Structure formats: structure tokens, C-alpha cells
């Protein structure tokens, strides 16, 4: 998935802040240089304004013209801090980072998003739609109120199919069950969400015999490939596997790839997790 | 005093650096990873990720967990082993616009001697850090750096293989770090890196499982800074060789604590994860601080918190 872009530290300004649902916040940034080079599936490391230790990795939700936006769940100290940003506040953002989605010439794309995994799939949806593909969004959340931005995806041209754990909207159950029920398998599946959902997507895609790209989430330290803290086991013959000695010298037929550097998007069939 | 005329250069063994900043081993890849975000010509040296005699896959995941004012890591020395490293990686280090310090870890005295000898023979490598204190590959946390005799044996064996600068990285997970430091100095260390991470653990109360695949990890970040400052202070009183102080440095104030405690240089590790611009900012603000305090050279303030003890450096124009 060769979409490496020139990345940098950007000093940007908050131009938009909206609470889309309880705890789910969208922060819009005036970030022309970042917007220009961001590709589908890229992420950013956000420098904590208070100086709190370690930047926060967030998927890039929108990138167009001079604007980049980030969409996240305020769950920890650092995301809570970002949730309190106000319009006009300065922010340091490192990005774009990672290797993103490759849509190629797929004509029928299914995108699976769980919770705030939705933050990483607008750009690939837009890219596929612009190329003339049919795009179905399978969107799951705990409950109806957390299905943020679903209208946005519909307005972009996606067919939106939703699932909720509590049945408050759409299919009652997991979004991957909804995907498995389709009578029209897509040519390509792209997914972002919690790890159990991604594992289910990988299984379902395998059963459907459809290639799937998964955007993985993990705790990052550096976010730029320097610390090897965010690895995932990958088959050695993957094009994304980092250079490492032959298996017989190492006693293992997998190799750890960095989610922040070789990923965060990997082919489901190449993961050995 | 003009900011631009302040001398920030340091000499660590035979290593002469324009700036007193090292990038901590294991935190900075080989420097290349951070090149888009920082001018590497404005840092002192990159300490590479540790290499071992044989390839290591590293620890199972998760390898990281964020904790208050820091983080726990247990990477487990993932590396391709010295053979592959020499053939594939080392030649790229010549391109770095800063000094490149190799880091060697091992599981026996012979491992260290073998790996140091081979790595130090390469021109791209300007000095060697002996990582005898990684808490994440040790049995029950015991490392070479936890035992004065083992420390001496490893340092002596490595010393016998190279004339290049040897920096020995000490563990805080000991009762008498000054005693270990003296052993390392007597065995031929040119400098000491103080400190490696502090052993720690975090538990997920929902799953009742440790939050690291390795169960235990090494704590870094501001949470350990006072532990590190004390360690530098105690080691500085015990040895004459220079100290590279490290542990939670994120600002010039943090760095100054280490210099005043007796460090000749500082190392930034976890701080790079907060903002990769921190090392250059520290250097700029250090020059401003020294100019404001009318110090022509950083060396003038090294160890000045050590009231009444003989500093290894005697400086020209030292007014302190």
C-alpha cells in the first residue's frame, strides 16, 4: 500500500469544534500543507497542548482545500484535553503518517466502520466514489446516538447500512454479521474499528473470498517507526514486512511490522494475529 | 553574554559533540525516522536501537501502555542480529548529519565482547553504548547492571575489543548505583548513561490481566525524572568520567536539573514522543539560559548542585 507522503510537524489553528454525540468530538483545523498531502487511511499525531507526555494518534477524517479534521472519542486524559480545544486555539500536529488504503480500480467497495473507526473511512469512501465505484458503508455502534456522521456518508453517495448492539437503529447485532448477510459480495473491503470487529471482518472477508484492508489501532509511542512499540505479526512474504533476517536464522515464520510505519492499513490475509 | 557565543559542546570520551543532546536508544530508530520533523544537525548524537549477537523477534504485544506522566514499554530488544545489521543497516548511518552511537545488548559477557568488537569496527559508528540494563529481557528483572561484578566483567571484556568511546548504561533498579558506577569506571568505561527505565507493571482491571505482553516493563517519562536526577547526583559524586543524564527530560528546565546534578550531556527518549522538536528547543533555550546567567560554556554549570565535591571538570572562566 505505497502511499507514503512527505510528513512534517504542522503548527495549525482550530477553526471548528463540534460535539457530535456525547464524548465524540470533531475538531476542524486550518492546515493547508497537511490537507494537501493527506491520503486515505493516513493518521496524525497530535501534540498535547498542555505538554502532557506523548502525542495522541488520531485518524484523519477530512482533508480538503485548507482544512483537516479529526474525529475522536474523548476517553483518556489526552483526548479529553483535545476535546476542550476552542476555535482559535493553536495546535501542533505531526503528519500525515503511515501507509493508507489502496482502492485501485475496485468498482464495488464495502467499508466497515465500528464506532469512531468512522474517522478513518471518509477519505477512502470519497476516493472510491470519485473513481466511480459503488460504496456501501456498514456502520456499527453500541447505540443509535453514536452513529455519528452517517448522513454525511449518505450525502457523499454511500449506501449506508447500520447495526447497533441494542437494536435502537438498523440491524440488531454486530455490523460484521450484516456484512456477512449480503447477497452481493463487494470486490474490496476496507475496515476500521475495534480489534474484535477487525478480526471478524477478516474472517468474513475470507469466507466471502474478498480481499480486505484493515486499519489497525494500537497504542503508539513515537508514531513514526522509531520505537517498535506498536507491532503486529505479519507473514514474511508480505510486501509490507520490514526487512529482517531469513526465518531460519530467526526461528519464526512471521515478522513484526510496525502498525505506525508499515501500517496502519494491512491486508487481512497477511496478518498473523 | 551573547546567546550565539555560548559554548554548548561536550566531550564524552573521544566523542566531541557540538550539542549536549543524545537521542535515547530504542526511542529514535536510527534517526532517519525523525528526520522529517527535526534538523538532525542540531542534535548531538543518536543512540541507535540496541543490537544483539543473534536476531530477536522481541516481546509479545501489547508492548506499550501509557501511564501517569510517562509510559511503560516492553519491546524486548527486537532487532535483526549483528550479522544482518552490519550487512544491511550500518552503511546507512553514514548519511546522518549527527554522530551515531551504536548500542549493544547481550546475554553473556562473550555476547557483549563479540557484538561490540564487530560493531565498533565500523567507521559509521562513532561510539558504543553498552546496554547492560534492559529490564525487559531479564530474568526477574536482573540485568548485568544489577551486579557490580557482572558489570565489571562485561565492561572489561568490551573494553578489550575497541578503543572507541564506551558509554555504559546503568540501571536504576539497584540499591547502590554509585557502587555499580565505580565498577564500570574501573573496568574502563569512558562515560556512563544514567538511567535506563525503572521496572513497572500495569494491570487491566476489567480483564484481570497485565497490560503488557511481557507482564512487566520499563517506566519512562517525567514520572521517573526525580529518580534519574538523584541517580546522576549520586553517580557524579562517585566517578570522574562524564555522565549522560536521562529520564523524563522534556524541557530546558528538566535538562538543567541533570547538568546541575552532574551530567555533562543529556539524553532525550520519551520526550521525542511528546514533540519531536523538544531536543532542538532545549538546545536553543539552554544557550539563552547560559547567556542570561553569564556563563560562556555549559561546562561551567555541570555538577554545580554538588556542593562541596570535586567536579571532574575544571573550567576556564569558571566563576562558580
Structure in words:
The complex is a heterodimer of chains A (273) and B (320). With 273 residues, chain A is α/β, with parallel strands linked by helices. Chain A has three domains: 90 residues, Beta Barrel (Elongation Factor Tu (Ef-tu), domain 3), CATH 2.40.30; 110 residues, Rossmann fold (3-Layer(aba) Sandwich), CATH 3.40.50.80; 55 residues, no CATH class. In chain A, 19% of the residues lie in helices and 35% in strands. Chain A has seven helices and 15 strands. In chain A, the strands form three sheets. A seven-stranded mixed sheet of chain A has the order 10-9-8-7-11-12-15, sandwiched between helices. In chain A, strands 1-2-5-4-3-6 form a six-stranded antiparallel β-barrel. Chain A has a two-stranded antiparallel sheet with strand order 13-14. In chain A, α4 links the parallel β8 and β9. Chain A starts with 7 loop residues before the first strand and ends in a 6-residue tail after the last strand. The N terminus of chain A is likely disordered. Chain B is of the alpha/beta class and 320 residues long. Chain B has a single domain, classed as Aldolase class I (TIM Barrel, Alpha-Beta Barrel). In chain B, β12 and β13 form a beta hairpin. The longest helix of chain B is centred in the C-terminal third of the chain and has 15 residues. The chains are: A alpha/beta (273), B alpha/beta (320). At the A-B interface, loops of A face β5, β6, α1 and α7 of B.
Amino acid at each position: 500500500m505505497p502511499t507514503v507522503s512527505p510528513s512534517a510537524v504542522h503548527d495549525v489553528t482550530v477553526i471548528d469544534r463540534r460535539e457530535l454525540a456525547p464524548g465524540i468530538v470533531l475538531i476542524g483545523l486550518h492546515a493547508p500543507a497537511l490537507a494537501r498531502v493527506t491520503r486515505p487511511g493516513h493518521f496524525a499525531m497530535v501534540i498535547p497542548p498542555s505538554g502532557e507526555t506523548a502525542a495522541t494518534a488520531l485518524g484523519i477524517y477530512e482533508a480538503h482545500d485548507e482544512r483537516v479534521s479529526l474525529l475522536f472519542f474523548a476517553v483518556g486524559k489526552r483526548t479529553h484535553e483535545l476535546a476542550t480545544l476552542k476555535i482559535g486555539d493553536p495546535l501542533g500536529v505531526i503528519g500525515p503518517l503511515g501507509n493508507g488504503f489502496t482502492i485501485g480500480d475496485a468498482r464495488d467497495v464495502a467499508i466497515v466502520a465500528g464506532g469512531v473507526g468512522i474517522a478513518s473511512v471518509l477519505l477512502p469512501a470519497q476516493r472510491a466514489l470519485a473513481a466511480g465505484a459503488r460504496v456501501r458503508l456498514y456502520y456499527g455502534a453500541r447505540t443509535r446516538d453514536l452513529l455519528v456522521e452517517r448522513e454525511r456518508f449518505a450525502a457523499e453517495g454511500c449506501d449506508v447500512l447500520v447495526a447497533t448492539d441494542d437494536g435502537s437503529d438498523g440491524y440488531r447485532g454486530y455490523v460484521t454479521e450484516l456484512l456477512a448477510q449480503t447477497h452481493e459480495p463487494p470486490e474490496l473491503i476496507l475496515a476500521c474499528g475495534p480489534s474484535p470487529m477487525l478480526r471478524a471482518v477478516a474472517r468474513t472477508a475470507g469466507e466471502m473470498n474478498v480481499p480486505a484492508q484493515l486499519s489497525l489501532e494500537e497504542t503508539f509511542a513515537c508514531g513514526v517507526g522509531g520505537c517498535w512499540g506498536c507491532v503486529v505479526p505479519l507473514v514474511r512474504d508480505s510486501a509490507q514486512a520490514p526487512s529482517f533476517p531469513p526465518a531460519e536464522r530467526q526461528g519464526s515464520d512471521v515478522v513484526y511490522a510496525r502498525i505506525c510505519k508499515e501500517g496502519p492499513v494491512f491486508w487481512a490475509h497477511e496478518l498473523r494475529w | 553574554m551573547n546567546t550565539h557565543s555560548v559554548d554548548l559542546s561536550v566531550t564524552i570520551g573521544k566523542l566531541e559533540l557540538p550539542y549536549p543532546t543524545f537521542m535515547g536508544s530504542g526511542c529514535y530508530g536510527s534517526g532517519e525516522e525523525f528526520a522529517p520533523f527535526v534538523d538532525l544537525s542540531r542534535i548531538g548524537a543518536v543512540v541507535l536501537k540496541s543490537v544483539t549477537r543473534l536476531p530477536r523477534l522481541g516481546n509479545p504485544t501489547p508492548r506499550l501502555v501509557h501511564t501517569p506522566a510517562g509510559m511503560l514499554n516492553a519491546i524486548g530488544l527486537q532487532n535483526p542480529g549483528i550479522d544482518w545489521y552490519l550487512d544491511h543497516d550500518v552503511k546507512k548511518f553514514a548519511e546522518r548529519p549527527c554522530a551515531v552511537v551504536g548500542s549493544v545488548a547481550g546475554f553473556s559477557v562473550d555476547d557483549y565482547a563479540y557484538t561490540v568488537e564487530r560493531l565498533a569496527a565500523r567507521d559509521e559508528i562513532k561510539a558504543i553504548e553498552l546496554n547492560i540494563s534492559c529490564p525487559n529481557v531479564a530474568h526477574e528483572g536482573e540485568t548485568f547492571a544489577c551486579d557490580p561484578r557482572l558489570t565489571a566483567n562485561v565492561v572489561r571484556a568490551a573494553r578489550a575489543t575497541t578503543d572507541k568511546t564506551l558509554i555504559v548504561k546503568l540501571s536504576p533498579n539497584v540499591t547502590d548505583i554509585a557502587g555499580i558506577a565505580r565498577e564500570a569506571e574501573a573496568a574502563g568505561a569512558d562515560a556512563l548513561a544514567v538511567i535506563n527505565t525503572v521496572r513497572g507493571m500495569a494491570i487491566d482491571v476489567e480483564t484481570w490481566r497485565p497490560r503488557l505482553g511481557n507482564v512487566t516493563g520499563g517506566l519512562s517519562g517525567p514520572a521517573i525524572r526525580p529518580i534519574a536526577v538523584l541517580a546522576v547526583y549520586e553517580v557524579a559524586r562517585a566517578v570522574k568520567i562524564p555522565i549522560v543524564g536521562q529520564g523524563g527530560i522534556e524541557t530546558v528546565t528538566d535538562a538543567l536539573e541533570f547538568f546541575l546534578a552532574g551530567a555533562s550531556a543529556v539524553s532525550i527518549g520519551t520526550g521525542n514522543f511528546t514533540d519531536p522538536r523538544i531536543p532542538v528547543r532545549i538546545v536553543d533555550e539552554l544557550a539563552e539560559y547560559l547567556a542570561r546567567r553569564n556563563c560562556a560554556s555549559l561546562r561551567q554549570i555541570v555538577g554545580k548542585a554538588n556542593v562541596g565535591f570535586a567536579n571532574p571538570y575544571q573550567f576556564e572562566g569558571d566563576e562558580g
